[in-house]
Amino acid sequence: MTELLFDPPWYLPAVIAGLGIYLFIHGNRRQDAKIRAAGGVVLLLAGALFFVGRVMETDREIAENRSRQLVNAVEQHDWTALPSLLDPKASVAVLNASIYSDRDAIVAGAQAATERYGLKNIRITSLQSRQDGTAITVDIDALSDQGLTGQPFPTSWQFEWQELSRGWTLMRIVCLRIGQETGPNLGRQFPRGE
Predict the structure, then answer these.
(1) What is the pLDDT of residues 174-186, one digit of tens each?
(2) What is the SS3 assignment for 31?
(3) CA gap 141, 126 in Å, rounded
(4) Helices (H), the chain
(5) pTM of this prediction?
(6) Contact (CB, 8 A) for 189 and 178
(7) Neighbouring residues of 7: CB distance < 8 A, sequence distance ≥ 6
(8) Is 101 helix (H, G, I), strand (E, B) or coil?
C-alpha cells in the first residue's frame, strides 16, 4: 500500500487528475458547486500524490540508489566513499563461502581487484529489488571494461541491505557470476591479502 503512495505508477496520478478534471467540468456545466468543488479536491489529491511520489524515497529506492553509489565508488576508485556505504561487519561471499568478512577487507579486496584486472567503466544493465520486512535484496547485472581483455565483462551481484537503528546498511554482497564462471570456483577471482 505504501508503494502506491510513495512510488505510484505514472498513470495513477494521471487517472485521478482526469477524474478531477471531468468532475470540475461537469460541475461547472451543471452549475453545481458541490461537484465542481469535488473535482477541485480530486485534482489537488492527484497533485499531492504526484508530488509525494517524486519527492519521497521508499526504502527500496534508498537501497537501489545506495547500490548504484557503491558500484560508482568502485568504478571511480573512490576508496573513501566505499566504506561509508558498508556496515563494519559487511561480508562478501560466493554461494555459501565467505570471501571477505569485514568492511576493511572488502575495501582492500576491491582496491586489489581493480588494480589487478584494470577494472573501469562499470555499466549496470539490470537492477531489481525486493523487500521482505527489514531486509531488501538488490540484484545487479553489470558490464565492466577490464584492461586485460578489452571486452565488456559481465558480472552478477546480490546486495543484501538491512534496516538497523541507524538506517539502511549493506550487510552482505554475494557474487553470483563473473564472466561465464558461477559457483564456488568464483572465489579464485577475488584477491586475498596481498
Answers:
(1) 999 988 888 777 7
(2) coil
(3) 5
(4) 2-6, 11-29, 33-55, 59-75, 81-84, 103-117
(5) 0.73
(6) yes
(7) 53, 58, 60, 61
(8) coil
